[in-house]
Amino acid sequence: MSFLTVGHRGVMGVEPENTLRSFRRAERAGLDQIELDLHLSKDGELVVMHDATVDRTTDGSGLIRDLTIGEIRGLDAGLGERVPVFQEVLDAVSRPIQAEIKDVAAARVLAGVLRERGETGRVSVLSFHDEALAEVHALLPEVRTVLVSGESGPDLVPRAQAVGARLVSLDLTQLTLAAVRRCHDAGIAVMAWSVNSAQDWALVRALGLDGAATDLPEEPAA
């Protein structure tokens, strides 16, 4: 695969994260893919937000799972942006999307939307939760699954293989050359997060990674 640049929550370093404004900015910047996060609202909608609560990124408070989509849509997510649902992002951008499942319960709902919308080729499904990826892989084996992990120990390759993942997304600060080689030897590509500084990009190159998730619209000069 060619080197993959991914806009982390859009371009959260310069725009309100996980908003349509941020995703459109990432697309205009020419990033290859756009990453976002998913939770389920009280009434079962796919809410695009990183945290389990709305407190940090909006002017509201409370757990996403305790709020209806109507209540969530009434919040300001920064610069007047509203919290989008996943289907709105599908309509707003044309780039491939990396959809990260934060709430395991969202796996089946996401699979249903991808099937209904015919988006199984454009959307990759990411998660720290092996069970969420396994469920998506079982329901939609044609969808690319990506295992996300903060660690890169010896169990990484078998975990990825068990959920059908041919790409892993790892914390750059925890990556080692040995871990990258283990993945590559197993035919598994490796990308890292979050890659923002010139030093980060230099490490990405030194490790021979296949991609990087960044908060910024442009790669810093080395």
Which keywords apply here?
globular, TIM Barrel, alpha/beta, eight-stranded parallel barrel, 222 residues, 8 helices, single chain
Strand line-up of the largest beta sheet: 1-2-4-5-6-7-8-9
CATH 2nd-level architecture: Alpha-Beta Barrel
Share in helix: 25-40%
Structural class: alpha/beta
Quick one: CATH superfamily?
A: Phosphatidylinositol (PI) phosphodiesterase
Report strand %.
15-25%
CATH class: Alpha Beta
Question: What's the structural blueprint in terms of helices and strands?
Answer:
Layout: E1 4-7, H1 20-28, E2 33-40, E3 46-48, H2 69-73, H3 86-92, E4 97-101, H4 106-117, E5 123-127, H5 130-139, E6 145-149, H6 156-162, E7 165-171, H7 177-185, E8 189-193, H8 198-207, E9 211-214
Helix pairs in contact: 4-5
Please describe what this structure looks like.
By secondary structure, the chain is an alpha/beta fold. It has a single domain, classed as TIM Barrel (Alpha-Beta Barrel), CATH 3.20.20.190. It is built from 8 helices and 9 strands. It has helices at residues 20-28, 69-73, 86-92, 106-117, 130-139, 156-162, 177-185, 198-207; strands at 4-7, 33-40, 46-48, 97-101, 123-127, 145-149, 165-171, 189-193, 211-214. Strands 1-2-4-5-6-7-8-9 form an 8-stranded parallel β-barrel, surrounded by 5 helices. The mean pLDDT is 97.
